[in-house]
Amino acid sequence: MPRLLPLESCDTEEYNSNEPPRNPQEYLRQVQREASLCPDVVVAQIDPKKLKKKQSVNVSITGCLAAPQGFSPSLKWQQQQVSRFSEVRQPKSEDEDGWKRFCLGENVCLDIQLKEEDKVNPGLDYVKTGFPPFLSIVSKLNQSTISAVLEYLMNWFEERDFVAQLGRWFYALLACLEKPLLPEAHSLIRQLARRCSAVRANLESKDDDCLSALNLMICIVARYFEQNDLADKE
């Protein structure tokens, strides 16, 4: 190997490695001696018997089981579902209607009345029920997009009642807002708190399921984001 530091060669056997080095030269000689003791070639001691036990890899190359007669959907239906899912999965930042459907679902956006059995077991059709604000989704939104989605949902909320899916998205978006707030975000969260207080004022009972969520939205905006004039007084 090429010499890196100007160190004179010495008899490494005469060097006493039991004593700590007293200066940089002795430290380098100690390193030199340790390097001279290392073999030029190192061979790993491997037990072949252990390797034989880990050679089998099971890879499934079979496809899905064929559906019974009459159970599989048509190709046209599959293409329609893929197309509709693609539209709602990645709305553009300026696509207000797309974001509303993505967050709240078609049932809420189109005011579709669910049957009783659907309310008990709505399933996992996110196109209909809306996509939850998964971390994998909201963590990829920049501050501009967060403000845009917050505005879209506020536009919907200004004309309609509070729903659970809306509350979950408001909470997630507020959690992603960075301080100091952008001017548009500052205005939107104040608008959110005022709207929540208006909806709360029209509740008929303090046992309403929406009350806790409305109080939480007002509290976060007023206390965490320091909009103290909007805070509930004790």
Automatic annotation (TrEMBL):
Cellular compartments per GO CC: SMN complex; spliceosomal complex
Entry's Gene Ontology BP terms: spliceosomal complex assembly; spliceosomal snRNP assembly
Chain residue ranges for the region called Disordered: 1-25
Gene3D superfamilies, sorted: 1.20.58.1070
Domain of life the protein comes from: Eukaryota
Predominant subcellular localization, coarse grouping: cytoplasm
Location relative to the cell: Cytoplasm
Keywords: Cytoplasm, mRNA processing, mRNA splicing
Subunit structure and binding partners: Part of the core SMN complex.
Entry's family note: Belongs to the gemin-2 family.
Function: The SMN complex catalyzes the assembly of small nuclear ribonucleoproteins (snRNPs), the building blocks of the spliceosome, and thereby plays an important role in the splicing of cellular pre-mRNAs.
Record protein name field: Gem-associated protein 2
Organism, scientific name: Cyprinus carpio
Source lineage: Eukaryota, Metazoa, Chordata, Craniata, Vertebrata
